[in-house]
Amino acid sequence: MADIKVVKFGGSSLADANQFRKVADIILAEKERRYVVPSAPGKRFPEDTKVTDMLYACYEIASKGENFTDAFEAIKERYNGIIRDLGIDLSLESEFETIRQCFIGRAGRDYAASRGEYLNGIILAKYINYSFVDSAEVIFFDDNGSFNLERTTKVLAERLSTLERAVIPGFYGSMPNDTIKTFSRGGSDITGSIVARAVNAAIYENWTDVSGFLVADPRIIDNPEPITTITYRELRELSYMGATVLHEDAIFPVRTAGIPINIKNTNDPDAPGTLIVANADNVPTRYTITGIAGKKGFCAITVEKDMMNSELGFGRKLLKVLEKNNISFEHLPSGIDTMSVIVNQSTFAGKEEKLLREIREAVSPDHIELDQNIALIAVVGRGMRKTRGTAGRLFSALAHARVNVKMIDQGSSELNIIVGVAEDDFETAMRCIYDIFVTTEI
Q1: What does the alpha-carbon distance between residue 322 and residue 27 come to, in Å, rounded to a whole number?
Q2: CB-hemisphere CA count at 13 Å for 174?
Q3: The model's pTM
Q4: Beta bridge pairs of residue 261
């Protein structure tokens, strides 16, 4: 199965009949695109409502025993409109009636939401003349709601080995008691990854409404450059800092199988997109860095104490206070007699005085300071470890922009440098980092 391509299409790619035609052209353009994973119809225009949200709202009305006819008819019309516009001979009336009865019987929010992908999968399979496979029959969760990769891979591989071409709806599977269970939002990405692993695909194409990843957030940087190739490790670093194109959990099944992911644009199919690979040591980098990402909402607790480095168990005692208060730390930059703990400010809210008091009791510091409203910025790139002076250029650029650096953390892999700045300096810092590493290198 070395030449197989698994292709997943997001909600914007399947929002209406015109988008369906684009998707069909893409699929049928290459015979290797044998297995297709569709999402539910997304927004057709900015003020529109995604079908998944329509289903949630409709089920909410039905679960209260109220009349949900109007809401349900609107959902039916979204699908019937696509069918009419495509001119295909298909009726979903039987499926609609089953869904309506299940809503009355309160089959659950997961069941309701999953019907968006289910119905869209039936339409797409009919339109491109592929077999339809209900994901509830081949994707499984355990009793505790955890995804069962081993059983799913076995059953899915066996089922698809008998089908030359098939559509498998994204987002959902089944529990041991045969009820429907969904992945979290964006879960169609996960389904596509699972299918790619099951058939040992040569590549997993994830089609959306953007042409891959960008070096930086376009809401901050005007027209940032695209990323052509990125490793799973780099993607993980950027995703942690808020860069979002692909559902994080979608990476795992294909990463362990060594299957690359190509993020592509349904509306610009000739664009190369972004290729996500396990190893890119032999792929030349266009810039010193691969990407920049950051987010606000952090605070730093800085503890100072003479001879801290020789006090056995100091760090453990400090972190135990955080654990006791159900707070996880993000970073631990430290010096000989200082240690800073960077935490998410939202988990810290309302506990400030209590936490500081308990830290004083636990480690008897000479001084303790709380610094709030910090933004973290990650500068990520495999090219950094091969380029001298990267850190120097970074901090010179920030100094020139009059941005004060509150924290510095560099991983031993030299894959990333994380800096902490005041939230008020966040956008300025992002722009000056982009300019020094991208604009000047173009």
Answers
A1: 51
A2: 12
A3: 0.84
A4: 204, 276
